């Protein structure tokens, strides 16, 4: 069971970015923000469950899957097709009804992500084995699914 839906999280990100910059979020920044939130959250929870001294709270109460939406290996890195268009973000006023600990984690990471250029985020995602192992330069469509387990495992090792 996932914590939220990628469309709701995307709406929250979209709203937070507009509040910070007074501009709409670029599609690449939205996609990479979703991906890195998924990856860092899942890795954080897995690492905390494998090593209880890693975190100040017990992470076994938290699902490591932030959202269940499909993640695919596209040319510019991982993409969540359900939120390919910014208009697909559906939460009203950017509200995200989740646990306050998770929300604080997301807000803290978004602060960092918003300060990184879009193509630096693409470059960072291209360094991930989860993307590298699933992107096929020869493919016509570039839409192979990336396993959530592969992403979470990779980030739990970082």
Task: Provide a short characterization of the protein structure.
By secondary structure, this protein is mainly alpha-helical. The chain has helices spanning 6-21, 27-50, 100-114, 118-126, 129-132, 148-157, and strands at residues 72-74, 77-79, 144-145.
* Distance separating the two termini: 24 Å
Helix content: 40-55%
Count of distinct structural domains: 1
Protein structure class: mainly alpha
Radius of gyration: 15 Å
Major sheet: arrangement of strands: 2-1-3
Number of helices: 6
Uncertain spans: none
Largest sheet: 3 strands, antiparallel
Report on this model:
The protein is mainly α. The protein has one domain. The protein has six helices and three strands; from the N terminus they run H-H-E-E-H-H-H-E-H. A three-stranded antiparallel β-sheet has the order 2-1-3. Helix 2 packs across helix 3, helix 2 crosses helix 4 and helix 2 crosses helix 6. The two termini are 24 Å apart.
Provide tags for this entry.
single chain; 158 residues; mainly alpha; three-stranded antiparallel β-sheet; 6 helices; 49% helix; globular
């Amino acid at each position: 069971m996932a914590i939220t839906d990628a469309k709701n999280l995307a709406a929250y990100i979209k709203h937070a970015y507009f509040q910070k910059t007074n501009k709409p979020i670029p599609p690449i920044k939205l996609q990479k923000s979703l991906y890195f939130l998924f990856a860092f959250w899942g890795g954080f929870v897995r690492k905390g469950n494998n090593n209880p001294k890693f975190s100040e709270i017990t992470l076994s109460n938290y699902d490591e899957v932030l959202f269940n939406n499909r993640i695919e290996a596209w040319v510019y890195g991982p993409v969540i097709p359900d939120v390919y268009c910014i208009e697909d973000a559906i939460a009203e006023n950017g509200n995200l009804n989740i646990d306050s600990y998770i929300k604080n984690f997301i807000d803290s990471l978004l602060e960092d992500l918003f300060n990184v250029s879009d193509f630096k985020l693409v470059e960072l995602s291209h360094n991930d084995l989860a993307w590298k192992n699933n992107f096929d330069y020869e493919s016509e469509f570039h839409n192979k699914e990336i396993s959530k387990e592969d992403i979470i495992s990779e980030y739990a090792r970082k």
